[in-house]
Amino acid sequence: MEFTLLILIIFLALAFDYINGFHDAANSIATIVATKVLTPFQAVLWAAFFNFLAYWVFGFGVADTVAKTAKTSSLDLTVLLAGILAAIVWNLLTWWKGIPSSSSHTLIGGFAGAAIAHGFSGKVTDLEHAGWNIVSWYKYKEGDLLPSGVLIVICFIVLAPLVGMFISYCLSLWMMYSSRKAIGPKVFTVALMLLVFWFLSTVMIGYESIEKPRFESHFWSVVTEPHNIKWLLVAVIFYSLAIFNLIFSSYSAAKAESVLKKMQLLSSAAFSLGHGGNDSQKVMGIIAAAVAVYLNTTHQEVMTMPEWLRVVLPNEEEGIKSQMPEWIPLTCYTVIALGTLSGGWKIVKTMGSKITKVNAFEGVVAESAGALTLFSTEHFKIPVSTTHTITGSIIGVGVTKRISAVRWGVTVNLLWAWILTIPVSALMAALFYYLVNLIL
């Protein structure tokens, strides 16, 4: 029975991953469709390809965070089943209504809500983890860049769109400033290029620090190290904008528009990479947590499991690193790419035109800001919402035109959907938990 439940949870987790793909397809293709750089079909192919490509770029930091949303040693598989069912129902409901809600937060909310219901059910024998304590609300370990826990995820409901908005606003001002035919903007851009080069040199790791080099060549091992790939992508995004800014003032309006439309291919690809890396890892985290719960409830050792299910959750105190069979990340990235191919056209319309009208200039800025935000939060292992991030970025470029350029009525409706996602998902998951326990 327990093994059947485990397989069902894995299947539903992958179904959620597929739904996540078409629910969130709008995040990376809305602006590129709105500016007519690509047709809708070309755009979903483009986004799906880079969603899948993220498999070779990102590690498992976000997956580990999701897997540790609740204390797996105190859970049973009905908790995970209820959490995924709630997440799937909420995602389908918001997709049907054309509301760009967060797939990430509905998964975290569902997982936490079912865990809390379990914590108060009387089934938890470890009183230290009973009730509200079953959820990992806040955890800080010395040496960590940021604390982890559900409260940090909730904080980033507000922070992610604000960070996206701030970055897109700053990028917009920088690019508008660079359109002037004066020496000042050029000097500022060159100084910024030097500053970013110094920053990247401090965060990228050298050959000596790579645990398992992929190539004998030092150069290719450093370039293809997942940690470095993220920062190299940041460099590509930033320096493409910087080089354009250096020659922006010499372009006519028509030439600048043409170049910006080509740059949108790069910025949307970068955002699709961030979306694939951020969102697929959440499903990996649920699958990893399910295996850990199964081992705990059946009192088995990980080595007794079939080789394709030998998952190890990280344990900093014991110095244990996460391990995952290759099929899990590969399947998760493949499924989200297939989901993206299906598209979610109702949400594309909201993201691409209802919030604010978007041209090529604004599309490049919004996608670049969104990608930079996602790469940064993935570095800190925070499972943020790609939906919130790109929405904030689109609002940021709208505000640079004028405050009234943003349709605040639509934005307020989106804000309510964001605020309600975690509590509604948690409540639904709790109800599913009690229903599942009545049936099983």
TrEMBL record:
GO terms for molecular function: phosphate transmembrane transporter activity. Keywords: Membrane, Phosphate transport, Transmembrane, Transmembrane helix, Transport. Pfam families: PHO4 (PF01384). GO terms for cellular component: membrane. It is a multi-pass membrane protein. It is found in: Membrane. It comes from the Bacteria. GO terms for biological process: phosphate ion transmembrane transport. The chain crosses the membrane at residues 44-63, 75-96, 150-175, 187-207, 231-254, 415-436. Coiled coil: none annotated. PANTHER family: PHOSPHATE TRANSPORTER. Belongs to the inorganic phosphate transporter (PiT) (TC 2.A.20) family. This is Phosphate transporter. It comes from Flavobacterium fontis. The lineage of its organism: Bacteria, Pseudomonadati, Bacteroidota, Flavobacteriia, Flavobacteriales.
